[in-house]
């Protein structure tokens, strides 16, 4: 039998409501499916951005003074020498923020003296010569801080840093052409860039994730400090437990506020994106399932109400395969109509998302893949009732009821 | 008649159990998705103190550098916090009925009977007006006096949770406790109070905008008194060539913004007077070289304040829209199935018409069938929605995001479920029932 679409179309025309409703479902589902997949893709891309630091073996211990009698500078150096002598510790430093958490500070840097010209916002961290090793960040150019450059905390005085280290990303933001090494930037005081390190995510406060500047000053201004500790692989939890216990009891006027592993910080940082992606996937999957059930239902209904016609068709020489094809083509027509409407809808929604949520423009490959996937599962849904139709014996045509 | 129609409907369901399950399931899942997203969305957008929306105002001024706006991504908006200089000047006005400055300072609580380790407590530094303005409920005692604001006197208010941890929930009013190693007298213990979002302080400090309220409260002036640097959100800019901020005193005189200010202005006249007062201060300071940006002195209602801070997340809006698209697909699906099912039962309806049933009766009979279906689907949807909310809470258990914290079933969710059920019945059932009601009996009688 040649594929004859005309009788199919006239059947659709005679009773269009059911087919129209299914096409509408297909359209909405396609539009949502395509855009949801595109959003999920963006979220996964964000989640997969490398942190650039060792998140597996590193933790933070937050120490806070309970009175202004707390000698922060002494406590810092005491804690550091304790930690560096502790078995299982690979490196330790004291710093002013926690990478990946938003807990920290940022700095505005200028390219010209007098804080004029282009402003570059960067997350800031301050730590001593062991900081890079603790984070697991590698030096790409220049040098690390020397121990004699480290400014200890002095109460009521924040030492202006004359030397800074920047990430590769920040170096490029500051000096798009040429090397940043040895150049001077301004912010409070002039600062010379002495080193460039591999990209890592700093505390991230409304700045691009990898733009971080590092000062050789030790913190304390806000009444406390963060101890950043990297352990040997597998020792993290044991060291964390021991250090928390020891430091908690070590200072008369200082308490351990809380501890946090960078692994958990990273998980929390990504949780919003991850969870939205999960919820979108669940709802979209349910939507596709309902849509397929709709196609299944429509085909089942058509098969049921055309039993005699199918019998006649078979009696006149149609093979089982022809009957199956008939229903699959009918399904395909409905799917195609839905896909056409759905594509327009998907593009409209995509444009709207780009305009309102700064989402990148919808990749047309996603639309194409969405059409193929939805038509594929749609045809599968039509296939089962079509098979059943093929089993209708030709003798049905001759029965009266 | 109603009972008879319901019996007919049940009979019809028994004839096609698969299709019935499919329709009930589709309605249930669609409604559940909507309930989950609506509940969270509604909770996010809630104004926790709506009854004072026209009375309480957050105060802002654009004190930022002339070089660039406070938020380059959103240049329209001024800083949402005040500098110490401006906040203390504006606080001096006696135009507002009540007023409060808000900031966070670090605090460590010790010396409670039987307390082994000091308790770190990010402390809310504020004024007595805070408790009155925001209708903060007390379990024991009450706010400190206005005189204690001025002193400042060593008085402290504990949250209910802190009181449970330190005093086992007993009345601790009148006892003393060490706050940052100084002896403070407890004057009040809060009752359960956890407005979400934390509308009175949306600076993101402490436990975040959807976090618990501070564990302890002390008079605002204790921060400056003890040189306690603010422990919440601080944003600074420096004039060209200015000396870097080194000491606490320099910080107080600096352009750093870190104080949220609220005033209670019950009448339009008071609002006008206070704005004039701000404008006069602004003009005077401008002649002295400050406030070089365009004038942007503002009073924000709570509802405007929530909107300004984009408290309802885009993700929540997105999920809400997807859920409604899903419900739409489910309902269209149900319409299709119902239509097919009813039309297949057309011969029966034809016989009933021939035996004297009116069109209206046929219509009513089928609409009742749809209603039974929708009610069952909605009940199931409500249960699924509750399960979905529990799932969302579990998903967000270890997250900073507010989405999980707000996923609690409430009356609003149930009200929405009922409304959605009614709407679904109408949307899904009207057309099929109408179609079957218009069937002409003759056609089916003939073919029989």
Give an account of the 3D structure.
By secondary structure, chain A is of the alpha+beta class. Chain A folds into 2 domains: 6-48 and 270-398, no CATH class; 71-250, no CATH class. Chain A has helices at residues 6-14, 16-47, 72-85, 131-135, 168-174, 236-250, 262-305, 307-315, 320-357, 364-390; strands at residues 58-65, 89-95, 105-112, 116-126, 139-142, 163-167, 184-187, 189-197, 212-215, 224-231, 254-261. In chain A, the strands form 2 sheets. In chain A, strands 3, 4, 5, 6, 7, 8 and 9 form a 7-stranded mixed sheet that branches. Chain A has a 4-stranded antiparallel sheet with strand order 2-10-1-11. In chain A, a hairpin with a 1-residue loop joins strand 7 (184-187) and strand 8. The longest helix of chain A has 44 residues, at 262-305. Chain A is elongated, with a radius of gyration of 33 Å. Chain A starts with 5 loop residues before the first helix and ends in an 11-residue tail after the last helix. The mean pLDDT of chain A is 88. Helix content of chain B is 50%, strand content 13%. The model of chain B has no long low-confidence stretch (mean pLDDT 87). In chain B, helix 2 packs across helix 13 (359-395), helix 11 packs parallel to helix 15 (411-437) and helix 13 (359-395) packs antiparallel against helix 15. Chain B contains 16 helices and 13 strands. Chain B has 2 domains: 2-45 and 313-447, no CATH class; 50-308, no CATH class. In chain B, strands 1, 2, 3, 4, 5, 6, 7, 8, 9, 10, 11, 12 and 13 form a 13-stranded mixed sheet that branches. Chain B starts with a helix and ends with a helix. Chain B has 448 residues and is an alpha+beta fold. Chain B has helices at residues 2-15, 17-44, 84-91, 128-133, 146-150, 160-167, 222-226, 248-253, 268-287, 302-308, 314-344, 346-354, 359-395, 402-405, 411-437, 441-447; strands at residues 56-60, 82-83, 98-105, 108-110, 119-120, 123-126, 138-141, 155-158, 176-179, 182-190, 216-219, 257-264, 298-300. In chain B, strand 4 (108-110) and strand 5 (119-120) form a beta hairpin. The chains are: A alpha+beta (401), B alpha+beta (448). At the A-B interface, helix 2, strand 11 and helix 7 of A face helix 2 and helix 11 of B.
């Amino acid at each position: 039998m040649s594929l004859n679409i005309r009788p199919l179309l006239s059947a659709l025309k005679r009773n269009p409501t059911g087919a129209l409703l299914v096409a509408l479902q297909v359209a909405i589902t396609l539009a949502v499916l395509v855009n949801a997949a595109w959003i999920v893709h963006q979220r996964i891309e964000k989640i997969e951005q490398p942190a650039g630091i060792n998140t597996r073996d590193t933790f933070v211990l937050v120490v806070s003074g309970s009175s202004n009698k707390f000698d922060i500078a002494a406590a810092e150096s005491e804690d550091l020498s304790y930690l560096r002598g502790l078995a299982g510790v690979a490196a330790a430093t004291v710093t002013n923020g926690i990478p990946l958490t938003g807990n920290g500070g940022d700095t505005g840097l200028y390219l010209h003296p007098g804080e004029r010209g282009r402003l570059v916002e960067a997350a800031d961290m301050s730590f001593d010569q062991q900081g890079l090793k603790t984070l697991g960040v590698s030096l790409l150019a220049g040098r690390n801080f020397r121990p004699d450059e480290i400014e200890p905390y002095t109460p009521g005085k924040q030492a202006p840093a004359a030397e800074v280290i920047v990430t590769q990303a920040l170096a490029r933001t500051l000096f798009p052409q040429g090397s940043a090494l040895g150049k001077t930037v301004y912010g409070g005081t002039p600062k010379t860039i002495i080193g460039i390190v591999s990209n890592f995510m700093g505390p991230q406060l409304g700045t691009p994730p990898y733009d971080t500047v590092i000062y050789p000053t030790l913190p304390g201004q806000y009444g406390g400090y963060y101890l950043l500790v990297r352990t040997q692989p597998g020792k993290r939890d044991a060291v964390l437990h021991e250090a928390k216990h020891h430091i908690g009891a070590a200072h008369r006027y200082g308490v351990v506020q809380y501890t946090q592993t960078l692994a958990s910080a990273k998980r929390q940082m990504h949780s919003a994106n991850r969870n939205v992606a999960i919820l979108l996937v669940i709802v979209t999957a349910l939507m596709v399932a309902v849509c397929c059930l709709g196609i299944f239902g429509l085909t089942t209904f058509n098969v049921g109400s055309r039993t005699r016609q199918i019998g006649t068709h078979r009696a006149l020489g149609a093979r089982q395969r022809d009957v199956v094809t008939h229903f699959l083509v009918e399904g395909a027509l409905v799917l195609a109509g839905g896909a056409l409407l759905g594509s327009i809808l998907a593009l409209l929604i995509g444009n709207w998302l780009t305009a309102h949520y700064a989402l990148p423009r919808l990749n047309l490959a996603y639309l194409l893949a969405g059409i193929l996937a939805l038509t594929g599962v749609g045809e599968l849904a039509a296939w089962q009732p079509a098979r059943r139709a093929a089993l209708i014996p030709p003798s049905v045509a001759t029965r009266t009821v | 008649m109603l009972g008879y129609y319901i019996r007919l409907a049940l009979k019809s369901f028994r004839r096609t159990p698969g299709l019935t399950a499919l329709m009930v399931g589709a309605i249930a899942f669609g409604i559940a998705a909507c309930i989950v997203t609506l509940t969270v969305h509604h909770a996010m957008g809630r104004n926790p103190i709506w009854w004072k929306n026209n009375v309480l105002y957050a105060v802002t001024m654009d004190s930022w550098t002339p070089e660039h706006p406070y938020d380059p991504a959103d240049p329209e908006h001024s800083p949402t916090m005040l500098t110490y200089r401006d906040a203390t000047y504006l606080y001096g006005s006696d135009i507002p009925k009540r007023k409060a400055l808000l900031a966070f300072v670090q605090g460590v609580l010790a010396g409670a009977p039987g307390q082994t380790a000091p308790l770190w407590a990010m402390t809310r530094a504020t004024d007595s007006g805070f408790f009155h303005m925001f209708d903060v409920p007390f379990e024991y005692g009450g706010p400190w006096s206005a005189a204690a604001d001025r002193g400042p006197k060593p008085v402290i208010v504990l949250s209910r949770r802190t009181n449970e941890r330190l005093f086992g929930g007993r009345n601790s009013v009148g006892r003393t406790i060490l706050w940052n190693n100084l002896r403070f007298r407890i004057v009040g213990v809060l009752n359960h109070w956890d407005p979400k979002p934390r509308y009175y302080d949306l600076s993101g400090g402490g436990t975040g905008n959807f976090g618990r309220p501070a564990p302890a409260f002390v008079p605002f002036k204790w921060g400056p008194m003890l040189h306690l640097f603010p422990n919440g959100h601080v944003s600074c800019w420096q004039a060209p060539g200015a000396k870097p901020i080194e000491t606490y005193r320099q910080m107080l005189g600096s352009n750093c913004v870190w104080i949220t200010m609220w005033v209670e202005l019950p009448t339009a006249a008071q609002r006008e007077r206070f704005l004039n007062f701000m404008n006069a201060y602004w003009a005077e300071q401008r002649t002295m070289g400050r406030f070089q940006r365009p004038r942007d002195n503002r009073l924000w209602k709570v509802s405007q304040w929530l909107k300004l801070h984009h408290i309802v997340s885009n993700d929540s809006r997105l999920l809400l829209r997807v859920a409604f698209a899903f419900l739409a697909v489910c309902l269209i699906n149900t319409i299709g199935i119902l239509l097919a099912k009813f039309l297949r039962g057309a011969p029966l309806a034809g016989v009933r018409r021939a035996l004297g049933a009116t069109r209206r009766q046929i219509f009513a009979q089928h609409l009742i069938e749809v209603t039974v279906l929708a009610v069952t689907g909605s009940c199931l949807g409500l249960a699924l929605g509750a399960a979905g909310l529990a799932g969302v809470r579990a998903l967000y258990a270890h997250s900073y995001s507010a989405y999980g914290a707000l996923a609690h079933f409430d009356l609003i969710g149930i009200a929405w479920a009922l409304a959605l059920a009614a709407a679904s019945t109408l949307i899904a059932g009207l057309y099929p029932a109408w179609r079957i009601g218009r069937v002409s009996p003759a056609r089916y009688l003939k073919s029989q």
